[in-house]
Amino acid sequence: MRKLFITSFLMLLVFLLTTADIFGDKIKISISGGFEEIRFFEKNRVVYYSLSELAEILGGQLDWEIIGHKVKYTEPNFRFDFLIESPYFRLDDSLFNLTYPALYDEGQLFVAAETFTPFLDGVTVQKITWDGDSRMLRVEPEYFNVTDFGISSKANGILIEVFLTSALNYDVFVTEGNWINISIPDARINSPRILSRKDPRYMYKLNVHQVANTGQISLRLKKNVNKWSHKLVFDPPRIQVSIPDIDFEIDPSDTSPVIGPDNKIDVIIVDPGHGGKDYGAIGQSGTREKDIVLNIGKELAKIIRKDKQFKVIMTRDRDEYVSLEERAKIANEAGADLFISIHANASPRKNVTGWNVFFLAPARNDSARAVAQLENSFFLRELSAGGDNPGETDDDVYYDPIVNILNEMIMTEFQAESHDFAMMVDREFRRNLKTPARGVDQAGFFVLNKVFTPSVLVEAAFISNKTEEKILKDKDYQKEIAEGIYRAVKRFKAKYENQ
Ligand SMILES: [Zn+2]
Predict the structure, then answer these.
(1) CA dihedral 93, 96, 100, 101 (to 10 degrees)
(2) Which of 357-371, 372-386, 387-401, 457-471 has the lowest mean pLDDT?
(3) d(C-alpha 26, C-alpha 30), whole Å
(4) Which of 81, 162, 353, 432 could form a disulfide with 239 if both were Cys (CB 3.0 to 4.6 A apart)?
(5) Per-residue pLDDT tens over the stretch 342-386
(6) Counting beta carbons within 10 angstroms of the beta carbon of residue 174, is it exposed (0 to 12), middle (13 to 18) or buried (19 or more)?
(7) Which CATH number is associated with domain 267-496?
(8) 245-249, 336-340, 371-375, 385-389: which has the highest mean pLDDT?
(9) How far is the centre of ligand 1, averaged over its atoms, from the C-alpha of 317 (Å)?
């Protein structure tokens, strides 16, 4: 009897440990040197925190509309509208998907920490980051005003650029050993980003120093610096240091882009979508789009690089955030001949499956619009700080952000070639992929819209579908996608080169 009791007690314990969600705990917020705590719980391994308590700490306000289960979170510069139990929410007048639903518990609104925090970060003046490992939310005062660095060869010398968020005082001085130092008294330097721009073709070293408010970027060039000049320019604001009469003779066989157009089809841009704080879509078992598409992108780059007639430039080759503007800039500066963006699709309807190939044009049906919305959403929220709000249609559940995009979309120039290339990818995929074909469609993607070259966006499969989530993780499938695209690239070259 006693034994039976103990056994059932143990079973009950096991049952509780395996099924119970963790409720009522507190997570820490590190904010301006101190700590605060807010409620959180974990459900299906997703951490949700109380936006009600967070809003109070940040000085915002939550308003409940009990009928209709709506919650508004308002601050002077932005407004979120949530629907309890729905993953969709509005930020000002655009609709987005959080992957996980907003939840109600004991009078408070809970949102998924991992997917919601980047949105909050995008609209607040503070830098807000969620650290899933230590379960801590960090709120820091707004951060970098020195954002990026570039070095490039020009006709007569080299150009060094330091990108700023606004005009800043600075000084440039050259010290022994060909060190070029750019000193900025009121700098908050994005050091990781800038250090990642170290280009060994030009420099032995690239250093960033930040001491209190003063920042300095120093680089040691591989050639002698005899004269230099500098100026502050705008659009975007940046410091330019020109060093004339210096010749680096950059080896053309390395991956440096050929600047300017030629009549060869040889510079291929591989653009794995999302990255860093932008996770893209998330599968039911937690697979992140940004990781899958990076793997496919790397595989594709590897395959194309084996073919020596092509040069490949990746817009990102690691888990980092690259803005859409930046991706377009990379392509345009490289004189790209083809731009291939790689993504994984997602739908609230979990049974939807298949691959798609999109080219840039006004979206012609609802599912193409939904895809464009999904892929544009991260960028649109960055835009949505300003801009006016076009109306929404009554019968459309989604607010259609493409309206915004189409207004400024003039890039129909490469539509025919883009369509043709999309059809070539389609043909290769149909031949080799086991996932269902959804075929070629047109949609207005922001990332494609500023690239001055034929461009397509491949949705490799639906990460929101359990089976396809698994398939997407399969190395063989990733390889098949990459090989299909590569064969289409070869066809495209054969058809269009020297035309
Ligand atoms: Zn995507």
Answers:
(1) 30
(2) 387-401
(3) 13
(4) 162
(5) 999 988 889 999 999 988 655 555 566 666 666 666 555 544 433
(6) middle
(7) 3.40.630.40
(8) 336-340
(9) 16
- Report the separation in Å between the CA atom of 297 and the middle of ligand 1, taken as the mean of its atom positions: 13
Residue 362 Cα to ligand 1 middle (Å): 18
pLDDT at 295 over 60: yes
Mean pLDDT, the chain, integer: 79
Q: Residues 185, 188, 190, 195: is their CA dihedral positive or negative?
A: positive
Indicate where the chain has its CATH 3.40.630.40 domain(s).
267-496
CATH number of the 146-244 domain = 2.60.40.3500
Distance from residue 462's CA to the centre of ligand 1 (Å): 10
Joined together, the tokens standing for residue 195 give 């250090």
Gap from CA of 33 to ligand 1 centroid (Å) = 36
DSSP class of 223: S
**Token duo for residue 275:** 């990255």
**Cα 65 to ligand 1 centroid, rounded to whole Å:** 33
CA distances in angstroms from 428 to 185, 423, 432, 488, listed in the order given? 55, 9, 6, 7
Which part of the chain has CATH 3.30.457.10? 19-140
- pTM exceeds 0.85: no
Task: Output the CA 135–ligand 1 centroid distance in Å.
Answer: 26
User: 375 CA to middle of ligand 1, Å?
Assistant: 5
The alpha carbon of 469 and the centre of ligand 1 are apart by a number of angstroms equal to 14
d(CA 435, CA 356): 10
Sign of CA dihedral 382, 187, 149, 411: positive
The CATH number of the domain covering residues in 19-140? 3.30.457.10
Cα separation of 327 and 273, whole Å? 10
Q: Which of 76-90, 145-159, 259-273, 276-290 has the lowest mean pLDDT?
A: 259-273
Q: Ligand 1 centroid to 151 CA: how many Å?
A: 30
Is the predicted pLDDT of residue 412 greater than 70, yes or no? no
Q: What is the pLDDT of residues 46-90, one digit of tens each?
A: 999 999 889 888 877 788 776 667 788 887 667 898 888 888 888
- Between the CA of 343 and the centroid of ligand 1 the distance, in Å, is 4
CA of 51 from ligand 1 middle (Å) equals 26
How far apart are the C-alpha atoms of 451 and 333, rounded to whole Å?
10
Residue 280 Cα to ligand 1 middle (Å) = 5
Interval between CA 202 and ligand 1 midpoint (Å): 34
Range(s) within the chain of domains with CATH label 2.60.40.3500: 146-244
What is the torsional sign of CA 320, 322, 328, 332?
A: negative
Are the CB atoms for 270 and 438 separated by under 8 Å? Answer: no
